[in-house]
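Run Homoserine/homoserine lactone efflux protein through structure prediction, thanks.
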Amino acid sequence: MLLEVWIALLGTAVLISLSPGAGAATAMSAGLTYGIRGASWTTLGLMAGYGIQIIVVSIGLGSLIATSPELFQVIKWVGVGYLLWLGIQFWRQRHNADIESHVSAPGPTRFWQATLINITNPKGLVFLVALIPQFIDPELPQQPQLLLISATLLIIDLSVMTGYSGLAATLRHRFADPAAMQVQQRVAGTALIAAALVLSVATL
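Sure, done. The structure for Homoserine/homoserine lactone efflux protein is below.
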């Protein structure tokens, strides 16, 4: 891959990761709820989901989703339902003990939740289907190019999601007492519900 092509890819990857969406909302909610270290489980889960999407596109299944409105709708509504469910769970934490129990949820649970959030975002798959071929030189071996593109997208997204969760984590000290902690939970829940509503209007 030519250097100028990779620089264009790098700029595109930054813009993709910075754009608001389910991933950004999840990263900020995790930072606000668990702090920067605790949010690392969520960030890694988002990367796992994104990586799976990239693999799916690389082996050609993404094209099937992009051309099948029915399959797109099924995946979309699974994602919408899951985000809504998570957001409602945050809102239902009414007592301090409930909130502390939620905050102390095992790291692997947060990892798989975040993985599922990114996997069930069909808009991301369709976007990758449109994006990745733009940076493939058909006259060169495809595998090394796909590896470079995948690594670039994942590293940039990891950096941006870590930044989002870190920014949110800086606000945690404002939510030390139980009443403020409940507000924190509802802010996080609202962000996830908003992400679900945005996903619900996604179209091919």
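The longest helix spans residues 22-58.
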